[in-house]
Each structure stands twice: as C-alpha cells, then as structure tokens.
Amino acid sequence: MSDRSPLPIADEHARSQAPSSPRNDVIDGLRGKQAAWQNWSGAQRAQPSDKWMPRDEDELRRMVQRADSLRVVGAGHSFTPLVPTAGAILSLDHLSGLVNHDTATQQARIWAGTRLFDAGPLLQGIGQAMPNLGDIDRQSIAGALSTATHGTGITLPCIAAGASALRLVTAQGEVIECSREHDADLFRAAAVSLGALGVITQVSLQNMPAYRLRERVHVQHLDTLLPELDTWAQRHRHFELFTFPNSRLAIVKTLDLSEDPITTETQGGDSDDVALKLGCELTRWLPSLGRGLQAMIGRFIKPTDRVNHWYKIFASARNVRFNEMEYQVPAAAGAACLDEVCKAVAASKVDVFFPIEFRFIAPDAYWLSPFQGAPGEARCSISVHQYHKQDYRPLFAAAEPVLRRHGGRPHWGKLHTVDTAGLHALYPDLGRFLQLRQELDPHGKFLNPYLRKLFGVPAS
C-alpha cells in the first residue's frame, strides 16, 4: 500500500490552522495510565494499558507503529463496545481545526479530531456549511464518519457522504490518501469503517454556502401522521418525529432553508431536559405513572418557530443520558415498522418514558454504510432509547425483532444483536471490506474483542 501518495487540495486561497487545544472531557477521561474509560451513557467501560493523545500526525504514526493493540476514542457517544480494549486507546483531540479550504469549490479539509460543535462555527467563519448534521454535535468528525452518523432528510445522506477525501494512518504507520477519485475502493471502505482499517487523521468535506434554517415543532397524534409520512418527508428539507408508544403522541420537527432574520426564540433546552428527566425518574420509581405522563406530553412541549444559523439549529441539548438501539429500514416499510414497534413496546409493558425517534436518510455507496443503496432507495431510521439508570435489554428485546423483520440494518454505534452471518446478509460488501482489512492490518492491531466477534475474526 506504500505506493499510495497524498492528494492535496489545490487552492490558491487555502489557509492553514494549527491543531487546536484538546477538549477537556477527553483529557479528563485520559488522565493517568491506570484510569478507567467509559462511554457517555456509562454502559461501556474499559481499563486500557495506555492512553495516548498525539500532538501531531508524526507522533501519531510512531504511536501506531509501536502499539500491539489500539483503539481510537472520540466523544464516547457510541453505545456499542467499539472502544473497550486491554490495549491502548488513542484520542485525536489535539488533531483539531481547519487545515485548508477552497472558496470556489466549497471544500474544506479539517483535522479528524475536530468536534462537530467546533466544526460548525469554524466552517461558518469561512462561509461554508455542512449539508446536514444529526441532533447531537459532541462527536468528532472521524467518529461521525466511522459509524455512519446521520441526520434526517429524504434527499440528504449520512455525514460520511459529505467526505470527498481522507488521510489514513495504517497499522504499519504509513499515511495513505484516498478519495472518491483516487483509490476509490479504499475510500468507500475507510469512510465508514468503525476504526478497523486505520486511524483517520484528516477529512476533506464537500460543503455548501452557509445557510439558515427555520425549525418548527409541534405535537400531533401518531395515527394522523403515519399515512402521511412520505408527504411530510417530501415537503420539508428535514423531517423527524419522536413518538411516545403508550400515548401515541408525537413531537414533530421540520427544518427548512430560510432567509428570514435570526429569531430570539430558543429551544426548550434546560426546561425540556428537566421534564424528560423527571418523567424518566417517575416512570422508573412509579411505573404506573408512565402512561399518564406520556399522555400529558402536549403540556410540556409547546409549538416553536425559530430561525438561526444551520449549526445552531441542528444540534439539541442531550443532557439526560440514555442507551440506544437503532435500525435503518427501507423507506417503503418505514410507516408500518414504526407502527409495529410502538405497538410491540406498548404491549411489552416495559417501563420507558423516552420517545422513539423516526427519520429519513438518502442512500450512499459506502461498503459498510447502513444506507448503502441505489439512488432513490432511501431508508428510515427508527431509534429506541432507554434511560441510562434502567435496564435497556427488555425494551430492546421487544423492539428489535420487528426492526429486523422489516429488513433493518443496525447502526454501528447503537446496540443490537446481529451476528456475523446476519451482517453478511445485510451488507453485500462486507466480504470485500474484511478482505481489505486483512490486507491493511493482518495482525488485527485495530480490532478489539467486540470487533473480532462482530466480523468473525479469530483471536490472534
């Protein structure tokens, strides 16, 4: 693989920025060689042998070369055990900021450790914007790509689809550049790769001119929404809903491009979090209250209409912790699957206050993307959440059979029980990916026990 050479972005207006300071949350999580690591929800934990935070790419290369076993850690917002290892964990938080940009093509190259909440104002400052984001912006750009993190929009693919090129440090410490045009197979494998092919250090993003969004939120009964989900998705640039299975009420959110002035109205923010946490705690301790509380959700959520810069609208506060399962089902099955999941959860009598989330996502061509498909083959994302203080297994056991029966593909960062055989049936290019992984990392340096089991790779 050493004959692959970097492909710099040609731009006479390009400017560079040194990697910025690391984020405090990761620093706190990496202090002390013997300190444990845990993910955001607290469900995944590890006692790594070493914790590294390289200050530049050369230092990262040397760390990779000397490591026997290594996993990269981002914000810890994956609920699956992608990080836990007895080997070393490595944070990219020093590799953060803008590398260069091209005004004419609306491209920007950024360091892969850049958090999405930093990327927003950074890109806004050069007049650019990412076409889409999810409603959580804590992740690093490398983590968002590697797990196919997404937002919503029937014409808008996952965040990784906005990448046009990336740099990858392999198990041997080589630096490879790949793109849509150069070494395209490696690019289609590496962009969504769960960190199993190497360490992504830089990403080129195909952006668009900075824009504003109008957000509208209201509460509506699910039964009136189900027959019109496709209409809602076609009518709005972004459409999603959060429905409460026991009351069948849904919070509907739409986002559309707007040239109107920025408004002073803000999200519910802290007050919404207080209501959600109170509902979760009451349901946890007094399960009989759960259904009644869900029926009152319309009193907690008031209609909103606000306009702001793209990156200030996409992200929502997520201060109440949870664990999550998510599957991507074909769009044609979306409404029926959502209805069945809600009915299965309600019939299970599981104590849960968190709503079920429903979104549309356009297809892409990445080998391990849950959205891989031909143009026009959109998928619907259905996400089931459980409060972090409650056992998520009964809830997920009620929902998962329905999601799988409808041809759902699991989100790589969300909990699921699909085994290797099941993955091969769902991901037609998984075999090609695993062959490339073996070529790039024959000794499994970037695998942990979870990935070995997931991919069917024997312990070395």
UniProtKB/TrEMBL annotation:
Region: Disordered; residue ranges are 1-27
Q: Which GO terms describe its cellular component?
A: membrane
Single Gene Ontology MF annotation: FAD binding
Q: What is this protein called?
A: FAD-binding protein
Domain annotation FAD-binding PCMH-type: ranges: 44-210
Q: What NCBIfam families has UniProt attached to this entry?
A: bact_FAD_ox
User: Which UniProt keywords are given for this protein, alphabetically ordered?
Assistant: FAD, Flavoprotein, Oxidoreductase
Under InterPro entries, the record lists:
ALO_C (IPR007173), FAD-bd_PCMH (IPR016166), FAD-bd_PCMH-like_sf (IPR036318), FAD-bd_PCMH_sub1 (IPR016167), FAD-bd_PCMH_sub2 (IPR016169), FAD_lactone_oxidase-like (IPR010031), Oxid_FAD_bind_N (IPR006094), Vanillyl_alc_oxidase_C-sub2 (IPR016171)
